[in-house]
Write a structure and sequence with these properties.
The protein has 469 residues and is α+β, with helices and mostly antiparallel strands. The protein is built from nine helices and 29 strands. Strands 17, 20, 22, 23, 24, 26, 28 and 29 form an eight-stranded antiparallel sheet that branches.
Length: 469
């Protein structure tokens, strides 16, 4: 009987002490500070690092028996006593500043700096995760408007059916006299499309996707301008090429190199106006790791000899560096493989090429997408374009390169046969060659690359996403 009672008591203890995935962390009735709502993927370590506090401090402030947390849990963040509201995180868009974010979320710039440990405005880079204190039951301002050069706050207020004192108050200005030319001010009512503070007057808006940037991706920079301009710029050390979408919208597509060290890099936009004057804006952007895996391949010595590889690489780079102003494709690309889902190796893997019978090693990465299949299977064009190279190469074997326009190219290596010639126009689905095992290979397969403005990118993006979008 005594043993049976012990088992029942132990079962009850386990039942009431185990936290289920649906349970929420209890918070104090009167929390001494703002609350953070746990998001998908959060760990207590991540949250502690985000708010520059300790795991034990968070556990103590919230009465947590252990480090287990679940989506939707509301956590008091220690060290922020005296504040109230909800702590949220936002990805900083390109072109936003501390001033514009302060006005948008009704948070003092000094508090934004404190929450995010910002010492200099240059630390507010696009793609960063920004902590914002959101006051309860405070909707976002519905509209923004530019203060035109020579315009007073009173004139803007009349134009927007409000008053100058309200504009000064909601935009945290010291007085109605303190508006700056071309400043973006939030409005208490209405709707409008205004550029973020910091962008020159020639730029109506700039949308950089995705943010943060990641190794090996294709970046789209969609820009709307307010007047006829010539656009240019630079991402990292790559000159940007803009193409007109319609009257006011321009787009640039740019690859991010898969081996680029993760970190903070400059993105600069430049506009040359009709009178010859120019305007520019530069902001740092975050480039994150693609978390690519490692692999080792054993190959013939001559295929990793710099005397062979470097001239061939230079030849290909020269071809893909030319820019055709016409865009031949429209929509998502089609897989060039007979078996479209038979991936044998994906893009970006860090590769160690070891020479058979030698100690020579070449370090690099997998520059494309490999499809399995036997020799002789057909290879088709993934999108319309013009053939700019078709012939044998030492490393790439029988090779074909197609120009799709706007600096976008497809390349196909290791073919057993090439069925097109230079200058030939191809359409989506046209057979251009056959799978083989020529060049630096360990077996027959189709190796397909996408180049975007001189950089190899992940082809799977182009199979899943429409560019431009």
């Amino acid at each position: 009987m005594r043993k049976r009672l012990f088992i029942i008591a132990l079962s009850l203890l386990l039942t009431f002490s185990t936290r289920t995935a649906s349970a929420q962390t209890p918070t104090p009735a009167s929390p001494a500070g703002p609350l953070y709502i746990v998001q998908a993927g959060d760990t207590l370590w991540d949250i502690a690092a985000l708010f520059n506090t300790g795991i034990n401090d968070i556990m103590l402030a919230n009465g947590l028996p252990n480090a287990d947390i679940y989506i939707g849990d509301r956590l008091v963040i220690p060290g922020l006593e005296g504040l109230s509201g909800t702590l949220i995180t936002k990805i900083v868009p390109f072109g936003e500043t501390l001033r514009s974010l302060s006005r948008q979320y009704r948070v003092d710039e000094a508090l934004l700096k404190k929450l995010n440990h910002i010492l200099s405005p240059t630390e507010l880079y696009a793609g960063a995760k920004l902590i914002i204190l959101q006051q309860d039951e405070q909707p976002a301002w519905p509209a923004r408007s530019n203060l035109k050069p020579g315009e007073t706050l009173l004139e803007l207020a009349v134009r927007q059916a409000t008053d100058a004192w309200t504009l000064a108050e909601i935009n945290r200005l010291p007085g109605t006299w303190a508006g700056l030319p071309d400043d973006v001010l939030y409005l208490p009512s209405g709707s409008s499309d205004a550029k973020p503070t910091g962008l020159p007057a020639a730029f109506s808006s700039v949308n950089v996707t995705p943010l943060p940037l990641v190794q090996g991706i294709t970046v789209q920079i969609l820009t709307t301008v307010t007047e006829p301009v010539t656009l240019g710029g630079m991402l990292v050390d790559n000159p940007l090429n803009f193409f007109q979408m319609n009257g006011n919208s321009w787009v640039a597509l740019q690859g991010v190199h898969a081996m680029l060290e993760p970190g903070i890099y400059p993105l600069r936009l430049e506009a040359t106006l009709a009178d010859g004057s120019s305007q520019s804006f530069e902001q740092n952007v975050l480039i994150a790791s693609g978390y690519y895996r490692q692999e080792t391949l054993f190959v013939e010595l001559k295929t990793i000899d710099p005397a062979v590889t470097e001239p061939e690489n230079a030849q290909i780079l020269e071809l893909v560096s030319s820019i055709t102003a016409q865009r031949f494709w429209n929509g998502v690309f089609q897989s060039p493989a007979y078996f479209p889902d038979s991936f044998t190796s994906t893009f970006g893997k860090r590769r160690e090429y070891k020479a058979i019978g030698s100690h020579e090693i070449l370090l690099g990465f997998h520059t494309g997408l490999d499809f399995g299949g036997g020799t002789g299977l057909p290879i088709t064009a993934p999108a319309p374009g013009v053939v700019v190279f078709a012939g044998p190469l030492e490393v790439r074997g029988n090779a074909t390169l197609i120009d799709h326009g706007w600096g976008v190219f497809s390349s196909f290596w290791h073919q057993s046969e090439i069925l097109v010639q230079v200058g030939q126009k191809v359409e989506r689905g046209d057979i251009i060659g056959k799978v083989g095992g020529t060049g630096r290979v360990t077996g027959p397969h189709l190796h397909w690359e996408i180049w975007v403005n001189g950089i190899q990118v992940d082809p799977q993006e182009w199979l899943e996403k429409k560019f431009p979008h």
